[in-house]
Amino acid sequence: MLNRIHAHFSRYIPLYLWLIVGCTAFGRSYAISFNFSNSLPGTVFLLEKRLGLTPVRGETIAFLYEGGAFYGKGAVFVKIVKGLPGSTVASRQIEIGYHDYFVDGVFVGRTKPYSQTGIPIKRATVGIIPEDHYYLAATHPDSLDSRYELVGWVRRDQIIGRAYRVF
């Protein structure tokens, strides 16, 4: 039995070494993220790691969540850039506890006073997005994004890189 294992590894060691090198090289520039919520269409995203990335409006990016309530610190979130530094974020109360949010006059979502599980959730601040911060949102009305204080405006140093939907 040991002779067969030894023979196998002796024969395929170059393949295993290349596999290790390939995984290491891939891991430096790319990662895979799974979306287990309904926040965006798609379940698997390819993340192109780019520290110091300056995102553009409409781009899908990944960032590290600061933690709190629903997810732990360092969870990877994938969202769409809706607001850039200098953009104006405004909200309008539509009924008690519910606010519509706008970035530069464009509707980006509605806040609710409670999560889907009934936990109270605070809405985020409004105003002008400061330098090196971004307003990130998703397409689902129950998405945890920049509408809520738990996420707020995302700092550039939280951004991992671009995200591409695989399926």
Straight-line N-to-C gap? 42 Å
Strand content: 35-45%
* Secondary-structure element string: HEEEEEEEEEEE
Work out the number of β strands. 11
What is the overall number of helices?
A: 1
Q: Strand order within the widest sheet?
A: 1-2-11-3-4-9-10
Low-confidence runs: none
Radius of gyration: 21 Å
* Overall helicity: 10-25%
Q: Which overall shape is indicated by the principal axes computed on the Cα atoms? A: elongated
- Helix- and strand-based class? alpha+beta
Q: Tell me about the biggest sheet?
A: 7 strands, antiparallel
Task: Determine the mean pLDDT.
Answer: 91
Descriptive overview:
- It is elongated, with a radius of gyration of 21 Å.
- It is built from one helix and eleven strands; from the N terminus they run αβββββββββββ.
- The protein has one helix spanning 2-29; strands spanning 30-34, 44-49, 60-64, 76-83, 88-95, 98-103, 106-111, 127-128, 133-137, 154-155, 159-165.
- With 167 residues, it is α+β, with helices and mostly antiparallel strands.
- It starts with a helix and ends with a strand.
- β6 (98-103) and β7 form a beta hairpin.
- A seven-stranded antiparallel beta sheet has the order 1-2-11-3-4-9-10.
